[in-house]
Amino acid sequence: MDEEFESVHLQPFLHQVSGHRGIFLYNDRTVCKPLNVREYNFYLNIPHILRSFTAEFRGEIEAEIREGNDGRLTVMGRRPKSTDRKKSVNCEDVSDSVMFPSKVEKLEGIHSLQLLRSDGIEIVTQTDQLIVSRDVRNDCRAEMVNPWSLRCQKKMMFKLKKVNHGPVTHCDFILLENVAARFRHPCILDLKMGTRQHGDDVSPEKKERFTERCRSTTSSSLGVRIGGMQVYRGDGDKCFWVNKIYGRSLGVDGFKQTLHQFLLHDFFGLRKDLLDPIIDRLKDLHRNIQSCDTYRFYSSSLLIVYDACCQATHLATDLGNDESCGSGHVVEVRLIDFAHFTRSGFQNDTTVHIGPDRGFLFGLENLIDIFSDMRCIG
Q: For the whole model, what pTM was predicted?
C-alpha cells in the first residue's frame, strides 16, 4: 500500500542574509533548507547544552519542483501523513540546484514573488507594481527586497536549468524553527565564526582558498567576520542590507563599526538596552562551547536577531503606552549551519581534534569585548 502524503506550497524566506542556498518557508514558524547529511545528523544528536542555542529541529520533507508551460517554477513540500519517521536520502549533491517556489504571499510589503525559468524574478508589491529583478550584486544597499535572498534564488535557478532535464525534480529538506518568526521587523546579523572555515574532508584546492580567505579577513584577527546583515530603518519602511562580500572587505575597525550600525536606530540612537541580553547569551554560549571536547564548528554562523518595532517602545512608554510588540527574549542568539561540523565518533570521521573549538571561542571572546565596549559610547 502506497504511503499517503500531504502537500504544502513552499514559499521563499526573504529574510535570508547569508549563505548560497535558498531557504524556504514551510509555514510562518518553520523554515526548510536542503538536506545535508552531516548537518542532519548533527541535529539528530545535538547535545543538551547546545539546544537552546540552535533552531529547533522539526523533521524532514521531500520537495517536488515542477515547471509550468509558462516557465514558472513551483515547489511543493510533501510530508508523510503517517507519524513514522522515514530516513531521508542524501540530496546534498543536487540541493544547490533543484528548489524554486512560484509565488509568495505577504512578507513585508510584498504580495507575491514569482521565480521564472529565465534569469528574471518578478516581484509584485501591494500597489500591484511589477518589479523585475536582474541585478542583485550590490554589496550594501537600502531597499525593501533583500537582494542577497534573491541572489541565492537566481543562482539556484541558473543551476536548475543545467541539471533538471525533466518537468519534475525531487529533493529532501530539513525543517527548522524560524527564529525570526516572532519579530515583526527582524534585524538580523549573521556572523561567520572561527579562525578556520574548511572541513576536514575538503579538497586541497578548497582548503587553500578557505585558509586564504580567513587569513585576509577578520576571521584571522578576531575569529569572526560579517556574513550578512539586515537592519530596518525609520518606521520599518526601509531596510539596510550588508552581504558576505562586503563583510570580507572589512578590517577590525570596519567590523566594529558594522556591529555598531546593527544596533543603531534612526531616532533613538544606539540600542544599549540590547547590549546586556546579547552579552549574557554570548557568555553562556562561550561557557557551553568550552565543555564540548573535540567539537569543531567549521563554517558555522551565529545569528543575532532583534525586533526593530520594539525600538518604538521607548517612545511609547514616554507617551503612556506600555504596549509590547513581542514576547519572550528581546534578542535571539542562535547557532546555524553545521554542514562541516565534526567531533569524536561523528559519522566515522577519522580526524579527531583535541579540546574545545579554540577558534570559535576566540571569536566569541572578541564579540563579548566589542559589545561590552559599546556600553561606554555616549
A: 0.82
